[in-house]
Every structure is written in structure tokens, then in C-alpha cells.
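User: Some background: our group keeps a shared notebook of sequences we're curious about, and every so often someone picks one and asks for a predicted structure to add to the entry. Today it's my turn. The entry only has the sequence so far, pasted here. Could you supply the structure so I can complete it?
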Amino acid sequence: MTPHSPGRVLITGVSNPLGAEVARRLAPQVPHLFGCDVADPVSALEEMDFVHADTRLSVIGKLVRQLRIDTVVHLAVMVDSPRDERSIHETDVIGTMNVLVGCAAPSSPVRRLVVKSSQAIYGAGAGDPSFFSEEMINWDKLASGITRDLLEMEQLVSEFALRTDGCGVTVLRLGYRVSEDTSLARFLSLPIVPVFTGFDPRLQLLHEEDAAEAIVRATVRDHPGAFNVAGDGVILLSQAIDIMGGRPAPILPPYGRWVDLAVRAEAVRARGPAGAPGRLHHLRFGHGLLPSRVGVRMEAVVQLAADDGRPRAGQEPGGHRSPLAPAGVRAAGLPSAAAAPCGPPQ
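Assistant: Of course. Here's the predicted structure to add to the notebook entry:
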């Protein structure tokens, strides 16, 4: 495949905070930038032309052809959402199918496709390993909810990559993010945090800015394949709660729905999405991401913190909280556009 330099880029799902940050970073790097979503963008961007379009409808293929898009960044994938399972399935699976059909049409000019996926594709269970590499995905796994939808979505993308030689495909499996609009951040911000008795799962978190930087690097350079994107190091749930100034409230697993209710109650107070944080089983059996290909560490080094503006014990009002995990992000095989020295992370 000949090297491709993006000229006309389309970002789906550009109205969510991650999509807006990706658009802001891509704008000065590509000649023409377009965004589409069902809702208006969270912030205006003069360098981007916005179109109201729903990926769940076949019109997305017509949009790709009319705008002569050569690079598609597909971020209209729901992972942490308050919507019902049917709506999530339609967006993640049917929406991705429509995007792929638009990119695979004989008259399609698309030469690069970047798809956002999630750590949730690996699921979480008592028999799972502590860390997953990209090759450890189990396509035949009996799954439900978001894990099932992501497996089906990535199978469609994999089949598209095999059939379409002229289009490079990159899948980014993002770790769980901690930002204002995620239920995990709101869960850890509770003053009393319900936890499962006898379980202290691992958390491997990813900052929103680092997630955006990984997507941008996959867009401006050729990086075909699937990649885990996660922060360096892990932290236990109990440690995260202590850092955030909360107090754990152990409950028995049969009453685990209380965890979901607590997150939803906090979401109502904050007027935000009320999706459970990575689904309840991730609060029992946590795991991390282990990139299988050695690359360079990302230069976008930011600290992980979830700040809802409320002071904690020993913290002055308005003060910033401590980070939840070591700073820095590893993204195997995704160097920056500038020539970065290759080799193992330092």
C-alpha cells in the first residue's frame, strides 16, 4: 500500500468531548476537516465544516462520496453511555456497518480508516489474565452488553480490512478514561464509594488528552492494525478512592446493583450521563492493557485527575487533586508525526 497523507478528513461523533479535542488537534495538521454528529459540537471550530448526520443511517456513505473524504476517523462508538442497550447496539454495530459500507463503495475515495474501540472488548471475569495484549482477544467469548457489541463491531472492521486492500485500517482500544463526562470519574468522586466485599480490582486509566493524541497520531500516519492505548502502571480501586478523599463502603456482591444506583444518583446530581463505570463486573475483576508491540512512549504527558471542584479532606477549596496514576501514556507503534527515537519506553 502506498503511503497516504490525509487531505480531507471526516470525524464521526465529533460532538462529544473526545471528538471535539481530536478535531482541535487535527485542524492545523490537515488541509480540510469535516465533522458529523446528530448533535451540535460542544465547541465551535472555524477550521472544521460541521454536518448533521447520523451514522445509523445509510446517508453516511453518500456524505463520504460527496465530500470526497480520503480519511475517516470513526468516533461515534458508545462505551460509557446512559442509553439503553438497543440504542448502543444500533450506534456501535449498525452505525459502524454503515461507515464501512460508505468506505468500501467502488466510488469511495477513502484510503485510511481509524476506529475507536475500548478496553471493554476484553470483558472481565474471574478467570481472565491480569493484562491483555492485542492478540489475546477471544472472538468466540460468550459476552453481553458493551463487550458483545464491541466484539461484533471489531469483527466487521477486521473483515473490511481483509477485503479492502486500498484502505489502511487502525483500531484503537482505549483504556478507561477519567474526565468530567465519564461515570468512572463521578463514581470515584462520591464521598462514600460502594465497593464489593473481598474485591480490589486493578484500574489502568487514560487521560482524555492522551486518548485524543493517540487518535491524531493514528490519523496522520500509517499504523494499520489494532492497538491498546493505556496509561503507564496500574492502581487498585482502594488506592484510587483514598487518593480522591472518599471512603469505601463494602457491600456483598449480590447487592451490587447498589453500586449502579449510587453512580446514577451522582449523575443526576451532576446532570450528566448515568452509565455504570465499565459495567459492574469491572469493579470486581479488573485488568490492564499490555501492548504486544514495542514502540515509543507518547510525548503528551499529562497527569490523571478527576476534579469536580469539591474540596477533599486536607485540600483547600479550589485546589487540584492528586493524580490517580503515574503520568504518561504508552501506545505501541504510534510515534508522533515528528521523528521520534524508536526503542523501548524509558
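Suggested note for the entry: The mean pLDDT is 77. The longest strand covers residues 112-118.
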